[in-house]
Automatic annotation (TrEMBL):
<keyword id="KW-0378">Hydrolase</keyword>
<dbReference type="GO" id="GO:0016787">
    <property type="term" value="F:hydrolase activity"/>
</dbReference>
<protein>
    <recommendedName>
        <fullName>Metallo-beta-lactamase domain-containing protein</fullName>
    </recommendedName>
</protein>
<feature type="domain" description="Metallo-beta-lactamase">
    <location>
        <begin position="13"/>
        <end position="193"/>
    </location>
</feature>
<keyword id="KW-0862">Zinc</keyword>
<dbReference type="InterPro" id="IPR036866">
    <property type="entry name" value="RibonucZ/Hydroxyglut_hydro"/>
</dbReference>
<keyword id="KW-0479">Metal-binding</keyword>
<dbReference type="InterPro" id="IPR001279">
    <property type="entry name" value="Metallo-B-lactamas"/>
</dbReference>
<dbReference type="Pfam" id="PF00753">
    <property type="entry name" value="Lactamase_B"/>
</dbReference>
<dbReference type="GO" id="GO:0046872">
    <property type="term" value="F:metal ion binding"/>
</dbReference>
<dbReference type="InterPro" id="IPR051453">
    <property type="entry name" value="MBL_Glyoxalase_II"/>
</dbReference>
Length: 212
């Protein structure tokens, strides 16, 4: 059984997830900031990172990418539609806020296609393309383990914002309906911010999904 550690990082408390197996290898999802805290958790639990996976390339999900990548010499996975976003503040959103520095991250090492299955070490992951919050937003489904990392597509009682570059409420709702609400109803969905939820809970109580 896989283990899940969660850190809330950076100015908007972005969820970073560290998924580890029995061999102590781990995947790091959305290391948004505060790399020292990530390093400390890895050291405390004696974990060996083998990859960084990004649900999308907004600034609050990518701030610690280069530090983590270089320290552990591991690849970064990102959807191909956001290939240029890591290095361009006008796309990753950091350029929108004068109080923030411009985030310029090195290119991803591996670009994901719309739908595919990944095998990274012992980890089996289904990639679900869930655009709307951003064009290259993806969710990572660990079907055999009963959970998925869904980024900023769906939150407990809410949905991702769609007023940023290339956002689309129509596409977001289609992604939620077609890719997330069709997952097993008790599957745990881990979002980019806030608390986990399930498809059943959101179908029953999320006001943004009325009529689905």
């Amino acid at each position: 059984m896989l283990k899940i550690d969660q850190l809330e990082l950076g100015p908007v408390q972005t969820n970073c997830y560290i998924i580890s197996d029995d061999r102590k290898e781990c995947l790091i999802f959305d290391p948004g900031e505060e790399s020292a805290r990530i390093h400390a958790l890895l050291k405390k639990k004696n974990l060996k990172p083998i990859a960084i996976l990004l649900t999308h390339a907004h600034f609050d999900h990518i701030g610690a990418v280069d530090d983590i990548r270089e320290r552990y010499s591991i690849p970064v996975y990102l959807h191909h539609l956001e290939k240029e976003w890591l290095s361009r503040p006008n796309l990753n959103g950091s350029g929108k806020y004068p109080a923030l520095p411009d985030y310029r991250i090195k290119d991803a090492d591996i670009l994901l296609t719309d739908e595919e299955n990944l095998q990274i070490g012992s980890f089996e992951i289904a990639i679900l393309h869930t655009p709307g919050h951003s064009p290259g937003s993806v969710s990572f489904s660990f079907g055999n383990e009963g959970f998925a990392i869904v980024g900023d597509t769906l939150f407990r009682g809410s949905i991702g914002r769609t007023d940023l570059i290339d956002g689309s409420e129509k596409k977001l709702l289609e992604s939620i309906h077609d890719s997330l609400l069709t997952l097993p109803e008790h599957m745990i969905l881990y979002p980019g911010h806030g608390l986990e939820t399930t498809p059943e809970q959101e179908m029953n109580s999320n006001p943004f999904l009325t009529g689905f």
